[in-house]
Design brief:
Strand content: under 5%
Shape: globular
Order of helices and strands: HHHHHHHEEHHHHHHH
Largest sheet: 2 strands, antiparallel
Number of strands: 2
Radius of gyration: 22 Å
Strand order of the largest sheet: 1-2
Distance between the termini: 45 Å
Structural class: mainly alpha
Number of helices: 14
Helix content: over 70%
């Protein structure tokens, strides 16, 4: 008995460092993701049903695309509160442009679709350019600028539609793109993976990616090093606007109509949460988009789990808020430990 009793503390002493080492290797977020998936699989069989899994992956794809752009802006030391409104604007502009092009070029579906795609993505680029120029040239706080453009962009989207969905898009755009599946997966998932791979390449292999890190880490040192801060800041905001517009285009193709209700405050908050929970520091200069993608998947699964558990929809933002506060607190504690060392 005594030998057995004496071995128990030793076993516990070995197990604890092993658990910490394992957690350190795989990361806290993936471990939490696996925990939620395992728990929901045990609680509700509907969770791992094919339809539910496709729904989760599709919604995670939308959030991943927006969050990648948001992450780049935060890494550069800013914020983009307008992404949700840009999703809505791009949706209605895409649908409206296709409807008008269908009248101007009847029967020419490739040209009609091209007009809508260019117009939709262009609207996101314009909003991002306005945000970037105001931040970089006028030295206005990114928070204030994007708060203003969020309100203005949402207002424009409502003016275009008068609150009524816009139809008139070619069926091939909806059927063969928005609702199409390849190897059982929706188009949005493949586009999200493509965006993620491009963003990983941009962060790790391009001067733009490195300069964004430098600007967010220490802008004064970046200036001394000869980094063109203004144009790279503008580039980060334009990229965020472009990716938000791409999400609006994908949502439009899936639903079959342009709607000013897409995106909104929820998409904006979730994109910031995905970035922060994914390790992007609010101080700037730190963050990796691949971890942000895992965070987006985690948030999507969490929201899906809350729905399956019939949690009141009014309480669901509370969970998101608590997670964000915890993530920011952990980031702050980590920064303080580094400064002490």
């Amino acid at each position: 008995m005594s030998a057995h009793a004496s071995s128990s503390p030793a076993t516990g002493a070995v197990a604890l460092p092993f658990a910490r080492s394992l957690l350190g290797r795989i990361g806290f977020l993936p471990a939490l993701l696996l925990l939620v998936v395992a728990g929901m699989s045990a609680v509700d069989p509907q969770f791992y049903g094919p339809i539910n899994i496709l729904n989760i992956l599709r919604n995670a794809a939308f959030l991943t695309i927006v969050a990648c752009g948001q992450a780049m802006v935060i890494i550069a030391g800013g914020f983009d509160l307008s992404v949700g409104a840009v999703v809505a604007l791009a949706s209605v502009v895409t649908a409206k442009a296709m409807a008008m092009a269908a009248v101007a070029f009847p029967g020419n579906e490739p040209l009609i679709i091209a007009c809508g795609v260019v117009a939709g993505l262009g609207s996101g680029v314009i909003v991002g350019l306005i945000n970037g120029l105001c931040v970089a040239r006028l030295k206005v706080s990114g928070f204030v600028v994007t708060l203003g453009t969020m309100s203005a962009t949402a207002g424009v989207a409502l003016m275009i539609t008068s609150g009524i969905p816009v139809y008139g898009m070619p069926q091939s755009f909806v059927r063969d793109f928005g609702r199409a599946q390849f190897f059982g997966l929706p188009t949005a998932i493949y586009l999200a993976l493509a965006v993620l791979l491009v963003m990983v390449f941009v962060q790790r292999r391009t001067l733009f990616g490195r300069y964004v890190y430098a600007i967010g880490g220490n802008a004064d040192a970046a200036v001394v090093s000869g980094v063109g801060i203004k144009r790279h800041l503008v580039g980060a905001y334009v990229l965020s606007g472009l990716l938000a517009a791409l999400t609006g285009l994908l949502l439009t193709a899936q639903v079959g109509s342009g709607q000013a209700s897409f995106g909104g405050d929820r998409m904006m908050l979730q994109s910031i949460a995905a970035a922060v929970i994914g390790g992007v520091s609010l101080r700037g200069g730190i963050g990796r988009v691949e971890i942000v993608a895992v965070s987006a998947l985690f948030l999507t699964i969490l929201g899906n789990a809350l729905n399956l558990l019939h949690i009141d929809s009014r309480l669901q933002p509370v969970f998101l808020g608590v997670i964000m506060v915890v993530a920011v607190a952990l980031d702050e504690l980590g920064q303080r430990r580094k400064t002490r060392v």
